[in-house]
Write a structure and sequence with these properties.
The chain folds into 3 domains: 171 residues, no CATH class; 166 residues, no CATH class; 31 residues, no CATH class. 60% of the residues lie in helices and 7% in strands.
Amino acid sequence: MWRWLSQIPFASRISEWNRERTSWVLCEGVHANVRELNAQLASKDVPPRSAEHAQLVSHASLALDDACRVIDVGKHPRGRTASHVAAAQMHVNSARTMWLRTLPPEELAPHLPDLFAIIKQHLPHDDTRRIAAEKAASELQQACAANDAAHEAAGRHHWWTVTRGAGPSTPSVPELSAVLDAVDAAREASLKERLRAVNFARLVWLTAFGLFCLACGIAVAGAIWKSAVPLCFTPGNEIACPSRTASSSPLPSPGSVASPGDYAIVEIAGVTAACIAAASALRKVRGSSVSFGIPVALALLKLPTGALVAVLGILLLRGEFVPGLSALDSSGQIIAWAVLLGYSQELFTNLVDKQGRQVLEGVHGTADARTPRESVVPQATPTTSVPVSVPVPSSDGDRQPGTRTGEHSIHP
């Protein structure tokens, strides 16, 4: 429909407003990731080292094509909820992992900070996959540091080399695969957290809708059977109802004084107070890049809850449940208590708000809270310099035994 409106004169702004209202920014982010990975795969467009390498590159390209197919907002039915963005990001993550598996160890090392940021965000400390990944990353760092030291020493003493046993070793492919396997596990945990957030949002929406229908049903029933359970009080020689106050002698029954709109008046007062409570609760809501609608659902849940709490509270007061507050004097007092009771729904919905914040924090990942980027990758074991006896050239060209310090390092 929006594509048809875009063809009508002066209706292009409506189409642009609809695009901005949806997850267009998130879709463009996925497109940018796809283009970046396509460029990375194109740079690897060389004769493959093995059949497995060629298969990984081919499947990575197919995953990127699937991401582009899923991310189209105009054709996807989930454009409003942004679930197609999460699905496309899954394809992008799969392609990125397959591309990383094609890299040699020396090219994989610069990507370790980003990989370990994902691992530490979603996997706990005692996870065996995280422990194995940290061990493999530490060995890779040690090997790269040893290679750099060897190249630097060879540059300083280019006409002679010092060897001590075997050269620096590089972690094998299975060891490096532990890092990528841990990244896959972290992304799977992130997906489960997202599904949990989606289910929580759906549950809140259904609960809010059910309470809204219940509040409307109570208002309609109170209008039809106004004398069944009237919201009226009898202070002295008067009868006070939400809509009016009557005084006569002898006093009529409360049901005859009640009006069909009494329940609606109390519910409107409760909903108004609940709206103010929902607006004040926005100060605790922080922006999020995930479009699950949890903050909106929690805010709307307060409205029917406020209406129902106001009605139930007035009924408790009428039943002399609270000593000393059994007889309200006027309609204004009844409405004032309805406002107070409607705002007091925070006592019940605050627990749901806390659960919603925990769910959103789980989506962002809380395995390691506030982990600085500098300490993301496990540090290599510190080395200790020892003197190594090496032949030093003399002035006449003969090599004499001498001592140089720091040319080799050993691990304690």
